[in-house]
Design goal:
The chain is built from 4 helices and 9 strands. The protein is α/β, with parallel strands linked by helices and 242 residues long.
């Protein structure tokens, strides 16, 4: 069992005693326990977390998908960035801005897609984070948790819509946020940030039309304006910065 803060030791011990081999990893971050569950035990562990008196996680507060493609890559270079210039620190190679031919491949990862849930035990006043990786990157499938926690309904539909994760056993798994004819899953890391098509309403035709994308992806670099002597024109201040 991993070393935990005193406030989490009872929960960590209960998880180890009750779930044991069904958990592959247990960590603590910012005072909250996080555990990994294999896909084969995902639904069984959910039932136990809810029904075991020593755990009693009655409430699911959040569920989301994760795409680990390109994990750790970013578009900001901070170690060797110059001290001046509007575009300093930007290499423009972050997720969604690489060329399609040079996009990261999922073969580089052991697991690409995961689902994370956050649970709350009102009885014990405890919180827990669970993560489960989908075993198949080509068609990520996990068991639906809707029978355990009905609140998972729209969360799972959102993860399906945005990440393409299929929840087996969900009674109404369909898109939630994108258009009816939308192609692809916009939160996947290989989905272009500018999208695939432009959608607009054509008043002459009286309907929505789809057109090729005309914009180019670019990196937005924030500018910070500091009102101190370093940025005041010396000609206006007499050269002393006041």
């Amino acid at each position: 069992m991993t070393e935990t803060a005193p406030s989490n030791r009872a929960l960590a011990q209960a998880l180890d005693d009750i779930l044991g081999r069904k958990l592959t990893r247990m960590t603590e971050h910012r005072g909250q326990l996080a555990v990994d569950v294999p896909a084969e035990f995902w639904l069984d562990v959910a039932w136990q977390l809810r029904d075991e008196p020593a755990l009693a996680f009655e409430q699911l507060t959040d569920l989301c998908g994760i795409d680990y493609l390109g994990y750790g890559d970013d578009e900001w270079e901070t170690a060797e960035a110059t001290a001046s210039g509007y575009s300093r620190g930007v290499d423009a190679l972050g997720p969604g801005r690489f060329s399609w031919a040079d996009r990261p491949e999922s073969e580089q990862l052991e697991n690409r897609y995961a689902v994370v849930i956050h649970l709350l035990s009102l009885k014990h006043n405890r919180r827990l984070r669970l993560r489960c990786f989908a075993p198949d990157d080509e068609l990520p499938i996990l068991s639906s948790l809707i029978e355990v926690w009905p609140a998972a309904n729209w969360y799972e539909r959102e993860a399906f819509d945005l990440f393409g994760i299929v929840f087996e056993g969900h009674p109404d798994l369909r898109r939630l946020l994108t258009d009816y004819g939308f192609i692809g899953h916009p939160f996947r890391k290989d989905f272009p940030l500018i999208g695939n098509v432009t959608v607009r309403y054509d008043a002459d035709k009286g309907r929505v039309i789809y057109e090729p994308v005309e914009i180019e992806p670019r990196v937005l670099v924030p500018r910070v304006v500091r009102h101190d002597s370093r940025y005041v024109d010396e000609r206006l201040t007499g050269g002393d910065g006041r």
